[in-house]
Amino acid sequence: MKVCIGLSGGVDSSVAALLLKRAGHDVFALFMQNWHDTTGTLHGDCEWEEDRFVAEMVARKIGIPFYFVDLSEEYRKRVVDYMFDEYSKGRTPNPDVLCNREIKFAAFLECAVRLGADYVATGHYCRKDEIPGPDGKPIYRIFAGTDPNKDQSYFLCQLTQAQLSRALFPIGDISKPEVRRIAAEADLPSADKKDSQGICFVGKVDLPVFLQQKLAPKEGDVVEVYDAYFDAEPHYAFIGNTLQSIEKDGLSEPVNMVTSYISETRSMKVNDPVREKTVKGNPDCEGGCATEGIFDREKIAGLSDEALLQLSRPVSYDIRFETETYRSGKKHVRKTRYKKNPFGKIIGKHDGAQFYTIGQRKGLNIGGHADSLFVIATDIPSNTVFVGEGHTHKGLSRSCLRIAPEDIHWIREDIPMLPGDIRRYRVRIRYRQPLQDATLVMRRNGLFILFDEPQRGITPGQFAVWYNDDEMIGSGVIGG
User: Looking at the structure, do residues 67 and 207 belong to the same domain, yes or no?
Assistant: First the structure.
């Protein structure tokens, strides 16, 4: 079996190459350059040249042929241009997911096949197997990596059956420390190399500077939204009432509208024993979820398509600020100021709403608050960034999201959901987020994901990925 290893110069792909060689495969290495422009990058101008040098040394050490391919034009068209377009619309894309779908297992795979490869291998921490389908043809399955701290299955959530048929993941059942140990014992040049960070094949970047290549800065207002706004907002009341109407009978507390976790690793106490059980999940149950979800399946089925659509929509912020004149100082100089508004306040300026993403804390540079400020929404037409104070701000949490029909992707093409289907899966909405229990509802106007626990910072443009136990079943782009 002839295998092309995508050798990046990092320790993961290096050990993957070594294991393939030890297993007796006919292995060759292919290094791809995907980016030339260093605008906005925070490292040296020749970082990719250093990576290529290390990769070539690794190939020589292992004893496998080494090749180079420049895919920068394909990467610009398929990944970077898409990034710019999404940010210009106020959405936050995931370039690593796109890179795997459009480059590593598309353009790169095509190049490897031309060089004679039967398979392409990468250093991703995930696992793959195959089972016979109803027609006798193989169905390829992809699972989370054995090392929970390095599971990278999320980044492969858009792969197709055709792409998976050619893919190998040699280190998916190995922990990161073990990978480092193998590399050190084999004296690989990449053994002590730090993991790469930032945008796939671009590197760590100052994102606003990077985006300013095509998106012009434009000053706008930063508006802090107060809790009083939600008390008077009809859509927020609709969400609360709808969630309350589909809860199971007998729960000890009213519907929870604010997430009980404040980061990917820190949680606040959940007092309700049913909700506590739900948050933890039970891998023996359907989709790995808890037995007792907090919502009633029959009540969910009774919701109309329009009600689900409304439930999935985030709260919008329509806060108007009026000015008034006053006299100041001994000379009674006439000045203008904004009238006090019970719903919010203009607290600063920004350089462009397109440079901010929901849930963002850093980069606001606004003081005078007891707790951290978080971005809760952006409005591109008015160039406004809305923020809220504290992890428990109501604008930071949502319980339901929608994926448009055209954005739904089934890795398991043999078990798609059809309109009217309701299933329980575990879901994550960003890399490294612990899997969350959820009910998936398929309707003609999209796939709706209703979480047992409100989610912090649901971000349009990112990918929601659903799992059955540790098998990745499908994914989709989160709508606005």
Answer: yes
Per the CB < 8 A criterion, the answer to whether 68 and 52 are in contact is yes
Residue 202 shares a structural domain with residue 258: no
Tokens of 51: 């990576």
Residue 264 predicted with pLDDT over 70: no
Asked whether residue 133 is assigned to any structural domain, the reply reads yes
CA distances to 9, 151, 393 from 200, in Å: 14, 17, 32
362: phi then psi, degrees, rounded to nearest 5:
-80, 150
Nearest 5°: phi and psi at 427?
-130, 145
Q: How many CB atoms lie within 10 A of CB 182?
A: 19
Q: Which of 54, 84, 52 is nearest to 70 (CA)?
A: 52
The 10s digit of each residue's pLDDT in 99-129 is 999 999 999 999 999 999 999 999 999 999 9
Higher pLDDT, 287 or 171: 171
Same domain, 207 and 258: no
Copy the structure tokens of residue 165.
Answer: 């048929």
Q: d(Cα 431, Cα 428) in Å, to the nearest integer?
A: 7
Active site residues: 99, 200
- Clarify whether residues 9 and 145 are in a common domain: yes
**Rounded mean pLDDT, 231-249:** 95
Q: What is the pLDDT of residue 405?
A: 98
Give the chain's domain count.
Answer: 2
Q: Considering the domain boundaries, does residue 267 fall inside one?
A: yes
Phi-psi map region of 461: left, alpha, beta (phi>0 left; psi -120 to 50 alpha): left
Q: At 280, which CATH number?
A: 2.40.30.10
**145 with 266, same domain?**
no
Choose one of 211, 245, 267: the last residue of a domain. 211
Decide if 175 is inside a domain.
Answer: yes
Residues 434-452 pLDDT 10s: 999 999 999 999 999 999 9
The CA R_g of the chain, rounded to the nearest whole Å, is 25
Asked whether residue 196 is domain-assigned, the answer is: yes
Domain containing 438: what range? 254-296+396-477
Give backbone dihedrals phi and psi of 402, rounded to 5 degrees, phi first: -125, 140
Q: Hey, what are 226's tokens?
A: 């107060």
Contact yes or no for 236/230 (Cβ under 8 A): yes
Both 13 and 83 in one domain: the answer is: yes
DSSP 41-63: BSS-TTHHHHHHHHHHHHHHHHT
The CATH number covering residue 92 comes to 3.40.50.620
Please give the pLDDT value at position 276.
45
The SS3 assignment for 400 reads strand
- Asked whether the predicted pLDDT for residue 332 surpasses 90, the reply is no
- Report the interhelical angle of 11-22 vs 176-185 (nearest 10°): 70
* pTM, 2 dp: 0.91
